[in-house]
Specification:
It comes from marine metagenome. Helix 5 crosses helix 6. It is built from 13 helices and 2 strands.
Length: about 250
């Protein structure tokens, strides 16, 4: 909910966003409420036999991930006005942002399922890698995705001057006229259709599409490698493999 407000997205998955219907003040309250509902659900796990010390540790994991996600979101917003971001900067940002979100979920699941520290660490790394694969694929779709499946306009990330991975990579690799055009376009208050078309050409010329796909696939492979030595039932490993494959290849 908060992400849609900050990105000014009026539609998500072909549905109007909360803020576009009810306004920003009510949407902010709704987003805050969802966090509180999650906290209540955590406390209610005591009714199902979860020990108090486990609940406390889960709460600590969640709080740490909240702070990391806020830090990542602040970096992401700050990147929009910068043209000197490196791929390393970008990967650190998504480790804070999307990585923390998915990693915390995996850590909590592992903590509830086993007391094996090695398994906990394996799923923590799995979550980080899945988060990276998910976010880079999301960046890819934000530029080259099918708008009929995405529920929002293709190229929207370019119009918003969002420094997604393909754009960061292009700024790193572009030279000559390509770099001059990128600097000119991203210095403007508004980016029109002609500018979007020019950016798309530059992305192709520097290989940003291929690099995005390659990094997504590498992250997906590293995710599966992270849990390769964990003892899992066949159905659970199949589910994990299916999840990673979907997130790395999804079209929406």
């Amino acid at each position: 909910i908060h992400d849609d407000i900050q990105d000014q997205d009026v539609e998500r998955r072909h549905q109007p966003t909360v803020w576009s219907i009810w306004g920003v003040p009510k949407a902010l309250v709704a987003g805050d409420t969802m966090q509180s509902v999650g906290d209540v659900c955590l406390l209610n796990t005591a009714r199902h036999g979860v020990l108090p010390q486990t609940i406390l540790r889960i709460s600590s994991i969640l709080t740490d991930s909240y702070l990391e996600m806020i830090q990542g979101q602040c970096l992401d917003l700050g990147f929009e006005s910068s043209t000197t971001i490196t791929s390393a900067d970008y990967l650190q940002m998504i480790a804070f942002k999307t990585g923390a979100l998915i990693r915390s979920g995996m850590e909590i699941g592992a903590l509830l399922a086993t007391d094996d520290p090695a398994a906990f660490q394996a799923f923590s790394r799995f979550g980080n890698c899945v988060g990276q694969a998910f976010q880079i694929r999301d960046d890819y779709l934000g530029i080259w995705g099918d708008s009929s499946l995405m529920g929002k306009s293709a190229g929207n990330d370019i119009r918003r001057r969002k420094k997604s991975f393909p754009i960061v990579y292009a700024f790193e690799k572009a030279v000559g006229q390509n770099r001059d055009d990128l600097l000119r376009i991203y210095a403007q208050e508004e980016i029109d259709d002609n500018d979007v078309s020019r950016v798309l050409v530059i992305l192709e010329e520097v290989g940003a599409r291929e690099e995005s796909q390659s990094l997504t696939e590498t992250s997906a492979e590293e995710a599966l490698e992270a849990i390769s030595l964990v003892s899992l039932p066949t159905w659970a490993r199949t589910e994990a493999e299916g999840l990673v494959d979907f997130l790395a290849r999804r079209q929406y």
